[in-house]
């Protein structure tokens, strides 16, 4: 008789929980399938927007894990568990982790913004982080890596990048090379202008358009400063700069144009 009662109670228990178990299994299967599906859609959307390939799977995994946690909370609620306590525990954990890693999370968020809005890309010559200049080697999750002309490797935290002015030197495809040449007040301005224009014309990297012009930029204390801005392709910036400086000096020497420099006169008093 006792066994019969136990069997009846077990049957009632199974009958009562069977629909919940079946519903939970269906919810898990369908929920996890939808989570994976949505994560793939997010990844595809990021690919279409040109987001860096290193970030795509990371963001997609965040979406997938978040949705699966929601599915598990829903299943727990179906069996009568108090889901608010789970939410409170997850919230407390997230808050604690956020406080511990707030600096790193800030750099991570900045890195994602850089990869989404793309103010610069790998290969661009930039000035970022409050004055660091170099060619972008990599845009990582937490840092941007620059390579300088003297072969130094500069690692700039992404949070520092987004909180400062970003100057993309090569972003427009062509760039003007700012130059200033000082000549003596006694020198012929027109003759010096001809020398500078001839050097720009002979420079293999200077473009015909926009055309090069030379103006009197400043009447300084001991020199007349001639300003010019020859344009070249972004990748030829340094070659153009060095070529112009060297050959303008040689051209001035041939033309007999003096470049003033500070002089000190010492008078010796007789004892």
The coarse silhouette is elongated
Strand residue content: 15-25%
Strands ordered across the widest β-sheet:
4-3-2-1-5
Task: Please summarize the sheet with the most strands.
Answer: 5 strands, antiparallel
CATH class type of the largest domain? Mainly Alpha
What is the total tally of β strands? 10
Number of domains: 3
Order of helices and strands: HHHHEEEEHEEEHEEEH
Low-confidence stretches: none
Mean pLDDT, to the nearest integer, reads: 80
Distance between the termini: 136 Å
Could you please say which CATH topology of the largest domain applies here?
Answer: Helix Hairpins
| Helical amount | 40-55%
Q: What structural class is derived from the secondary structure elements?
A: alpha+beta
Backbone CA Rg: 34 Å
Helix tally equals 7
CATH architectural group of the largest domain: Orthogonal Bundle
Can you describe what's shown?
The protein is elongated. With 271 residues, it is of the alpha+beta class. The chain has helices at 2-48, 56-78, 83-100, 102-117, 158-162, 189-202, 237-255, and strands at residues 125-128, 132-139, 143-147, 153-157, 167-168, 174-176, 179-183, 214-219, 224-228, 231-233. It folds into 3 domains: 2-100, Helix Hairpins, CATH 1.10.287; 119-168, SH3 type barrels (Roll), CATH 2.30.30; 174-255, Alpha-Beta Plaits (2-Layer Sandwich). α1 (2-48) runs antiparallel to α2 and α6 (189-202) crosses α7. The longest helix has 47 residues, at 2-48. The protein is built from 7 helices and 10 strands.
